[in-house]
UniProtKB/TrEMBL annotation:
Domain Response regulatory: 3-121
InterPro entries from the UniProt entry: CheY-like_superfamily, NreC/VraR/RcsB-like_REC, Sig_transdc_resp-reg_receiver, Tscrpt_reg_LuxR_C, WalR-like
Keywords: DNA-binding, Phosphoprotein, Transcription, Transcription regulation
Cross-referenced CDD domains: LuxR_C_like, REC_NarL-like
PANTHER family (UniProt xref): TRANSCRIPTIONAL REGULATORY PROTEIN NARL-RELATED, TWO-COMPONENT RESPONSE REGULATOR
Residue(s) carrying 4-aspartylphosphate: 54
One Pfam family named in its UniProt record: Response_reg
Leader sequence residues: none
PROSITE patterns the record matches: HTH_LUXR_2 (PS50043), RESPONSE_REGULATORY (PS50110)
SUPFAM superfamilies assigned: CheY-like
Protein name in UniProt: Response regulator transcription factor
Domain HTH luxR-type: 151-216
Amino acid sequence: MITVLVVDDQPLVRQAVRDILTDSGGVHVVGEASNGREAVRAAAALAPDVVLMDIRMPELDGISATEQICAGPAGDATRVLVLTTFEEDEYVVAALRAGASGFIGKGAEPEDIVRAVHTVHLGESLLSSAATRALIQRFVRRQSPQESAWEDEGLDRLTEREREVFLLVAGGLTNQEIAVELVISAHTAKTHVNRIMAKVYARDRAHLVILAYESGLVTARP
């Protein structure tokens, strides 16, 4: 059973998300919060597996709340999934830098929201639809590698194979897709990804994707 904390300043949105997750089975909504400060307190007290986080909220926005949650006592076990709208998409990359593991639109189909929670909980993949990759490319490409806030020293420690896997992760491929591409087992692909994350100090695959673009290892296409 995946435990989830739902954070949004609109009661109707919180209720709708709660209903979607509860009806899906396998997910238990352990709490709700209407602003960032409540979210930080609730995450510390409840230690949910996943926090569904709105961005624009009173008192403390979702980006700041995400940063505090990921840096807090529950940060190692809790994954943050950002709920966003197209009007807010400029904040998505900032949320990923703050520690969010992925994002999904508020207008997504119920089954997509449920799938997103499971995906982020497993840590297997950034939500890797074409729209997700396009969104990351759209905003990260505005920066030059010199403007990156990431530490990129770990890139020098990657083996040739790890660098190859890194590029595939940056393209949004899952472990299974990487295995097919490189003709290796899914387990071997997962091992490579875990080693890469350790070497470059990335929290999860979402951070690997951002690092790949911000470091200049991958160049976003116009």
